[in-house]
Amino acid sequence: MPFINLILLTLHNIARWVFIVVAIILLVQSFQGWFGKKVYSDQNRTLTTIFIILFDVQILIGIILFFSKGWGSVMMTAGDIMSTAALRFFAVEHWMIMLLAVILAHIGSGQVKKAATDLQKFRRAAIWFSISFILVLGGIPWPGMAAGRPLLRLFGMTI
Ligand code: HEM
Hints:
By secondary structure, the chain is mostly helical. It has one domain. 74% of the residues lie in helices and 3% in strands. It contains five helices and two strands. A hairpin with a 2-residue loop joins strand 1 and strand 2 (157-158). The protein is elongated, with a radius of gyration of 18 Å. The two termini are 18 Å apart. The site of protoporphyrin IX containing FE has 23 residues, from helix 1, helix 2 and helix 4.
């Protein structure tokens, strides 16, 4: 694998964990704000921005990785790819699920901004970001799946 790909794959792998931690904190805050009728603060706003930036960075790295795989250059037909679960996952499922998830996150973030009250902001954040996060969890190539990938990658080293 070219070294630049190994760097991007390492980043994509580790950023997944940062993303998951930020998403969980954001969701906990959103539900607490919603049910605890809290004030929507600058800190809530900042965390949402960090969540969206991390998401966009993952999408960007993912798109570069996708095109660097050179699907067309390998001697495989679309039929071969679609009939092999491990190939189909990265050719079709992974990016489609993640793209849908990031679109929902962006719509949600817009909806949160437009909301008139703090309660509405927290409720919209909780609902939109939960759906998006569930999609992300479902779209990750967890170990054990046909297309499973390591839990942690540090260049050549994997766990
Ligand atoms: C449109 C969005 C995305 C695209 C196009 C994309 C694409 C890819 C590609 C091409 C690979 C590498 C497969 C390989 O080298 O064989 C990959 C691996 C992976 N992706 Fe994505 N990805 C996207 C979004 C995301 C997001 C949002 C996350 C998680 C937050 C994520 C998590 C992962 C993980 C954990 C791996 C395995 C990394 C490893 O092997 O160490 N991806 N992705």
